[in-house]
Amino acid sequence: MPRPLLRPQEKTNVQQNNMLNATLQQESKIATPKMSQAQIDRLLRKPRSQAYIDALRKLDAGGHVCNHSQVKELIDALKDEFPEIEFSGVLLGIVAACCLGRPYEVHSLDLAGNIVQHYKAGEPLPGALEKARAIAIHGGYLCIEVYTNCCRAIHANGTVSLIK
């Protein structure tokens, strides 16, 4: 009778333990409960870091068309600021007064599309971002973070004001 050329390797105890540990780690990641809304709100009340504030300030300095590296830098700064929070579906965008002058009034960062758009006076902002326009223009804030359930006004020193 012919002998097989390749024999299936028997798994050692160490290999079996490693596989079992990896499986348990995967299951624990899946079973980890999501953060409650109260926990998310508590985290979002924290003052913003200087790195985040600096990234926000650079956003409007790029002129009418902002380059993608600045947008990526801001999104990365936001993720670094709150690594515990998954912002997709929670943070709709960021609105700020535009420093480009007339005819531009505000600009927004749409996180879903990673798009910076400058809006002229009277030109409507998309969806729920419109509610932040008046606050951005007249409130004296650096920017307004627009969430599904509220707005958070960010001061130049990083402090946060909740606006419902």
Order of helices and strands: HHHHEEEHEEE
Question: In terms of structural class, how would the helical and strand content be classed?
Answer: alpha+beta
Task: State which percent range the strand residues make up.
Answer: 15-25%
The 3D shape can be described as globular
Fraction in helix: 25-40%
Number of strands: 6
Mind summarizing the main beta sheet? 6 strands, antiparallel
Distance separating the two termini: 81 Å
Number of helices: 5
Give the mean pLDDT: 78
Number of domains: 1
Low-confidence stretches: 14-32
The strand order across the widest sheet is: 3-2-1-4-5-6
How would you characterize the overall build of this protein?
The chain has 164 residues and is an alpha+beta fold. The chain has one domain. It contains 5 helices and 6 strands; from the N terminus they run ααααβββαβββ. The chain has helices spanning 13-31, 37-44, 50-61, 68-81, 133-138; strands at 91-97, 104-110, 115-120, 143-147, 151-154, 160-163. Strands 3-2-1-4-5-6 form a 6-stranded antiparallel beta sheet. β1 (91-97) and β2 (104-110) form a beta hairpin. α3 packs antiparallel against α4 (68-81). The longest helix has 19 residues, at 13-31. The chain is globular.
